[in-house]
């Protein structure tokens, strides 16, 4: 996933049943299952101590789909970005096989994600530019997904037309999805797409109707609306609604606006997935006494003791810190916290509950959680293991 200020049809063994499910889902059948997509950042296997997260730590009861992140693009085809962790050969850890086996054993769908922020946009733009390259890529995806026994692909190009891309990417992305859809669906496999939630970028990058035509599900990366690298003041990472005191430029940077933009663009509610962050975005306050929303900052917050990424704290790193002064606005549905010159915007059980209720009220397909290794999966804070995931599942009627 990436900074964005800035995935699936349940497969049955027989084509008729798969078609029947699709028809019901697209018609908004209220009895259709609400999905919970759970992303797994495979790099968390290397984190030390309590931060280490292995495939087997996933709580299968809290997800319908688990998404392995990330594969990359090299010479126009899908490749592993970490062969030691992903593969079994050469005494590797075999995480791909373990992940797919875990999904099968627990009745989940295993999706393989390609892209992400660090992969950039340029090589995806180049690959999508010609029919021959799109076909070569799609063929490599089908072969790779089948080899490792996954159920489908999550296309996470961040983002068409952006970060060195070209204006032609918008049309080429649709053509790429069409090719992937044809080849994956012909093999009974799933195609999902992760998209930028920033409304201006989305308008440039995506043909909403065509994305919905070819993708089984569309996951809104509805977080990173505000970060220390994109703003010079504190802001909310993933607000559900616009805040009255926000300036006009920020009124589009919220989950509700993003969802309505895609729905208004002709995307069926039954295909739209809302992203919920299991982490917070952090800032260094310019003045510790000025610690409200919109307070001046001096850059990204200090890296967390376990995740070690400036500007980012996992939920367990936030809830384990006892110094926070927590500010909650129940009327507007947001929370942030501060101490000294540290400031963080994050989601807790209350805000996740509100977002899941929003998903339910809008008749959306479900939620996407980024990412499992950032949740309090060890119950460090006494709310129970995976409190945010649990809250979402309870509201969605899955627990």
From TrEMBL:
SUPFAM superfamilies: (Trans)glycosidases (SSF51445), Chitinase insertion domain (SSF54556). The keyword Hydrolase applies. Coiled coil: none annotated. Keywords: Disulfide bond, Glycosidase, Hydrolase, Signal. PROSITE patterns: GH18_1, GH18_2. CDD domains: GH18_chitolectin_chitotriosidase. InterPro entries: Chitinase_II/V-like_cat (IPR011583), Chitinase_insertion_sf (IPR029070), GH (IPR017853), Glyco_hydro18_cat (IPR001223), Glyco_hydro_18_chit_AS (IPR001579), Glycosyl_Hydrlase_18 (IPR050314). One of its GO terms (biological process) is carbohydrate metabolic process. Residues 1-25 form the signal peptide. Pfam families: Glyco_hydro_18 (PF00704). The keyword Disulfide bond applies. One of its GO terms (cellular component) is extracellular region. One of its GO terms (molecular function) is chitinase activity. Residues 34-399 form the GH18 domain. PANTHER family: CHITINASE (PTHR11177), CHITINASE 4-RELATED (PTHR11177:SF360). Belongs to the glycosyl hydrolase 18 family. This is Chitinase 2. It comes from Coptotermes formosanus (Formosan subterranean termite).
């Amino acid at each position: 996933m990436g900074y964005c200020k800035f995935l699936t049809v349940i497969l049955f063994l027989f084509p008729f049943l798969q078609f029947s499910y699709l028809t019901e889902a697209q018609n908004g059948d209220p009895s259709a299952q609400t999905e919970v997509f759970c992303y797994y950042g495979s790099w968390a296997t290397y984190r030390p101590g309590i931060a280490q997260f292995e495939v087997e730590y996933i709580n299968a009861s809290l997800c319908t789909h688990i998404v392995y992140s990330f594969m990359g693009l090299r010479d126009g085809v899908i490749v592993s970005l970490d062969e030691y962790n992903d593969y079994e050969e050469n005494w590797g850890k075999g995480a791909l096989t373990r992940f797919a086996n875990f999904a099968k054993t627990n009745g989940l769908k295993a999706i393989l994600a390609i892209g992400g922020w660090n992969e950039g946009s340029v090589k995806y733009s180049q690959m999508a530019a010609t029919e021959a390259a799109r076909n070569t890529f799609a063929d490599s995806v089908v072969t790779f997904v089948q080899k490792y026994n996954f159920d489908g692909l999550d296309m996470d190009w961040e983002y068409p037309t952006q970060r060195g891309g070209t204006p032609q990417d918008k049309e080429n992305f649709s053509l790429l999805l069409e090719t992937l859809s044809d080849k994956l669906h012909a093999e009974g496999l799933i195609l999902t797409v992760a998209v930028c939630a920033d409304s201006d970028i989305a308008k440039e990058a995506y043909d909403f109707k065509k994305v919905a035509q070819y993708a089984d599900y569309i996951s809104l990366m509805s977080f990173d609306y505000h970060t220390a690298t994109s703003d010079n003041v504190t802001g909310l990472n993933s607000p559900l609604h616009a805040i009255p005191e926000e300036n006009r430029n920020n009124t589009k940077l919220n989950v509700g606006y993003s969802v309505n933009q895609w729905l208004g663009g002709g995307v069926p509610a039954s295909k739209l997935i809302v992203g919920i962050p299991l982490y917070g975005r952090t800032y260094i306050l310019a003045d510790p006494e000025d610690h409200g929303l919109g307070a001046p900052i001096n850059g990204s917050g200090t890296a967390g003791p376990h995740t070690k990424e400036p500007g980012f704290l996992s939920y367990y790193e936030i809830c384990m810190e006892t110094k926070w002064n927590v500010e909650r606005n129940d009327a507007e549905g947001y929370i942030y916290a501060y101490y000294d010159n540290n400031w963080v915007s994050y989601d807790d059980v209350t805000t996740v509950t509100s977002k899941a209720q929003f998903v339910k009220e809008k008749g959306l397909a479900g939620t996407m959680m980024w990412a499992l290794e950032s949740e309090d999966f060890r119950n460090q804070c006494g709310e129970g293991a995976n409190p945010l995931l649990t809250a979402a599942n309870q509201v969605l009627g899955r627990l």
